[in-house]
Amino acid sequence: xxxxxxxxxxxxxxxxxxxxxxxxxxxxxxxxxxxxxxxxxxxxxxxxxxxxxxxxxxxxxxxxxxxxxxxxxxxxxxxxxxxxxxxxxxxxxxxxxxxxxxxxxxxxxxxxxxxxxxxxxxxxxxxxxxxxxxxxxxxxxxxxxxxxxxxxxxxxxxxxxxxxxxxxxxxxxxxxxxxxxxxxxxxxxxxx
Length: 192
Description:
This is Glycosyltransferase 2-like domain-containing protein. The protein is α/β, with parallel strands linked by helices. It has helices at residues 22-30, 50-56, 71-79, 100-110, 138-144, 154-161, 173-178; strands spanning 9-15, 37-44, 60-65, 86-89, 116-118, 121-124, 130-133, 169-172. The protein has seven helices and eight strands. It is globular and about 50 Å long.
């Protein structure tokens, strides 16, 4: 019997004063039904108990920044150490369904020319209500279907739905590393 190789996925989690959320975040990565996952968590100079919580997890690689540099800096630091064929970024206060990695990797393996895949997401607003994004038009629902499809025009999709968020993307590590990472000086929507 020939066993199919399960390609490694690297998950990069930047953290900053995330002691309330980081345990749940990491647990959802460890609990993925996909088996070959490397987790790199970067503590970005937290002043709370985040670093100690990270060190309790034996299955993750923990990197530290002495001072707060921002999530882009931490994501790039993790990206440059990623050893998986695929890479995903997950913010410390976010979490995934147990099949996120298996579904996104299956898509990238089916569409070998695709650089990345993005999914929708479900969030909780300040009043405890459910927020689903993106809300696709009926035409787009028919085109993308349940299992997804190649986006014919990424920039049109982006401008219509603003639907590509950090924790919804899986990409090929080699392509992501070629970019040299995210620009750390662009901190418009990040807390310091």
